Task: structure prediction
Amino acid sequence: MRKIPSLKALQAFEAAARRGSFAAAADELHVTASAISHQIRFLEQEVGVSLFHRNTRTIALTDVGENFFQSISEAFITIEAATRDIERHGKSDILTVHAVPSFAAQWLMPRLARFSAQHSSIDVRLYASADPVDLNAGLVDVDIRYGSVLPIRGVVTLPLPEEAIMPFCSPDFIARTPHHLRQPSDLCQCTLIHSEVNLLSWRGWAKRHDNVPLDFDRGPRFDRSFMAISAAVDGLGVCLESHLLVERELQTGRLVPLFEDKRSMVACHSLSTLKAKQNVPKIKAFEKWILNELARSQYKQFAEGKAGLPPLA
Result:
């Protein structure tokens, strides 16, 4: 058990030592001078030494009292700074989320305002990188990964819903293409934009659609989906991406989907957290929220279309 003197007595001592008199300390703490004197006497009894030299009109710290005051004063300054920090941030919880860059930039960031609106007591810190994080280090609460995740002792991984993968291009690209883009074979004369780390490549997509003979060796290549999407928006060619990652571009008309009835459903992302922390309220709140948001996104672009939900490929 920690041996800590009465906090009320410490507060009286610190104020008296700092102000130089019991009366001034009493004014600051809104008590009587005799109450200050009583608390300091009580503190001296607890620590077993005199902390002040006293005469009829003045007080002065003893050597031991001076050393004690310096330490106590630093402690009060630390407490005051911590209190101001809480007041400044105004949040009771901080949730630290790590995510792969394209998911963070294209899908998660545009929605964080909705999470904050629903959970005003939680402050979100979002970090993005392709490198996995060590959840056991305690610096990150939630890790959103792309692709397969190896089992780690003490870590729980939740697969997120499958995503619809299909080709996308800009309206300008379609206008410049001399032939119609109505079926996969029509892409044979088009520039393909490659996302080299994607789970479903153009070669894999072509195999799913009668081995259409696309030119896999040509076209710009990127190691991040958000760069491939940007290239497609700029009219450089046709990209093969998840509908989740292009929602904003679809809503603004900067990209349009091709062959919606040929979409492929692929398990892409997962959410990991420590097993020991999976029931922490802030983590449970984020998990529930992200699943709800993904459900809203899942078929939004199709449900708004004239043909409704086409069959899956």
User: Anything to note?
Assistant: The longest helix spans residues 63-89. The first strand starts at residue 52 and ends at 54. The chain has three domains: 7-89, 93-162+267-303, 164-264. The domain at 7-89 is CATH 1.10.10.10 (Arc Repressor Mutant, subunit A).
